[in-house]
Amino acid sequence: MRLSKAWLIAVRDFKIFGHQKNLWYALIIFPVIISVLFPIVIQYAINREPGLPAARIPSILDSFSIFLIIGASFVPLGIASYSIVGEKVEKSLEPLLATPLTDGEILLGKTISAFLPTLVAMYTGAAVFMVGIDAVTYPILGYYYYPNWTIGVLLLILMPVAIIMSVEFSVIISSRVNDVRSASNFGILMFFPFLAIYLASQIGIITLDIDTLLIISGIIFVVDVILFFVSTAMFRREEILTKWK
Amino acid sequence: MKSQPKSLSNLFNIHIRKIYHSQGSVMIEIENLTKKFDSLTAVDTLSLHVNEGEVFGFLGPNGAGKTTTVRMLCCLISKTSGNARISGYEIGNKEDSLKIRKIIGLVPDNVGLSEHLSAYDNLDFYGKIYDLTNDQRKESIQRFLEMLGLWEKRNVSVGTFSKGMKQKLAIARALIHDPQVLFLDEPTSNLDPEAAKTVRDFILELKKQKKTIFLNTHNLDEAQRICDRIGILNTNLLTTGTPEDLELAVRSRRTVIELEQVTDEVLKSLQKLSLTNLTVESNKIMFDTSDLDKKIWTVVAAIVLAGGHVNIVNVVGSTLEDVYLKLVGENK
What is the pLDDT along chain B (332 residues), one digit of tens a residue? Predict the structure, then answer.
């Protein structure tokens, strides 16, 4: 598999996405909500009577930060769904399939084209989130909570593998349905595993420390690899050309 | 009723071999190629050759298997049985499939352009896929867009283009890497007459450049004007030949001679000539002939010698449409 060829597809898709305002909205809205709303909520919790005790703030922030992963799991759904279903709609897959590109190169290109914009959007949102949280918690904590190792593992390891899982799942769904909305609707199922992790942390089954995050990341990475092979196996040129309507 | 297409095929096998040996090397070889979708046979034991530099027209009604054949040849779908080679590479062989895709260009029945990208970006993307250098891409893109009258619109989104412009751009896309074989699947369908003419003219330009072209069409006029040889498909291959030979093969040309009066002497003299399908209607005599120069003037001379006065001599030829309708109709 040639990465340069996959990159070509990704770059072309970036250009196409640039003309799709709806995809931009999906990409921007959630990071903006997280980065602005969460610091406001924490500020409110600190200021109200009785105020949030300083000792509880780190655990609350660690739990909150899983929402960055929840966001990362559904922000790429629109782009990932569009990248395959959009080709179906424009009927532009046949000439692409007639080139010397392999299935793996096409799918990797599609994965990159949904992965990178999501990662950039989520990192931007996370940066604003951390600055906002530090601004509101510094007076009560006496130190800047972010950055720390936990958020580092969460952003640099867990978030990328979570995005890839979501993208791969969307690609698989996209190859089975005929419109972007249906693909996105199915893709929302990706929300539940991370919601379960959040709930498990809230009821004390797991602690969202570095070790746990690394274990979760490892599991998701394995799922990513499996999903990539599944998506490649399900990407059947003949079926695409003869059964996709 | 089905025996006639087979005999026609036999008749033209001689002609095919003649062309096969007289022209360049064989670019496309198909032997008993069959494609089945579950219980439906889309293409049945198709065998034919297309020579290098030849424009081969594939005629047939909707659902005849033309697109399926092109997709098999472009390694987009698998064959059920049989063999086919493009420039010696075997379809169905995984390694050869990639090599085949490198040396072919495909214009599918749906143009399949990225509507949000400009004409330039659409071509540039495919140029990069085929590993053209920056200079090669720039040169090729400019050459094709200028040739097709689209250079001024190179930075405009393809979504704003007319169908004809899109079709031309799709052909340019398929040619960007200078493929050895160009597959065109219904390139003028759904186009208005002016756009269709522009596309046809461009194909004729490619023909002058000796590009090997496999043209799927159900436009008989287009096939007649563009193609060196034509194959008529209706799941199985009904016949192949040059447009002119196909016309002659299906029915001899009909000669109509109008006289001032058809006398007994004239009729007696014509009966001696053993004319095929001789009929008399009022003051007209009609018969089939495939040897125009020789037979018609022999007949005219016989009429004059028998005291007849010839007013008009007319030859009514069968058209490719007659051939097509006859063969496809018999095959239903």
Answer: 333 444 444 444 444 444 444 456 899 999 999 999 988 999 999 999 999 999 999 988 888 899 999 999 999 999 999 999 999 999 988 889 999 999 999 999 888 898 889 999 999 999 999 999 999 999 999 999 998 888 999 999 999 998 888 988 999 999 999 999 999 999 888 778 888 888 888 888 888 888 899 999 888 888 888 899 999 888 888 888 888 777 666 555 678 899 998 999 999 888 888 787 788 888 999 887 665 555 788 888 899 999 999 999 887 766 666 667 777 766 65
Question: ipTM value of the model?
Answer: 0.81
Buried b (16+ CB within 10 A) or exposed e, B179-207: bbbbbbbbbbeebeeebbebbbebbeebb
Task: Note whether A88 contacts B: Cβ–Cβ < 8 A.
Answer: no
Burial classification of residue B20, based on how many CB atoms lie within 10 Å of its CB (0-12 exposed, 13-18 middle, 19 or more buried):
middle
Q: Is A49 on the interface with B (CB under 8 A)?
A: no
Residue of B nearest to A16 (CA): B116
Contacts of A13 in chain B (CB under 8 A): none
Domain range list for chain A? 3-243
Q: Say which CATH topology domain B3-248 has.
A: Rossmann fold (3.40.50)
A242 touches chain B (CB under 8 A): yes
Chain B partners of A16 at a C-beta cutoff of 8 Å?
Answer: 114, 116-117
Q: Give the C-alpha separation, A93 to B215, whole Å.
A: 21
Q: Which residues of B touch A (CB under 8 A)?
A: 37, 71, 74-78, 98-99, 101-102, 104, 106-108, 110-117, 121, 125-126, 128-130, 157, 170, 173-174
CATH 1.10.580.10 fits B251-318, yes or no: no
Q: Which residue of B has its CA nearest to A91?
A: B112
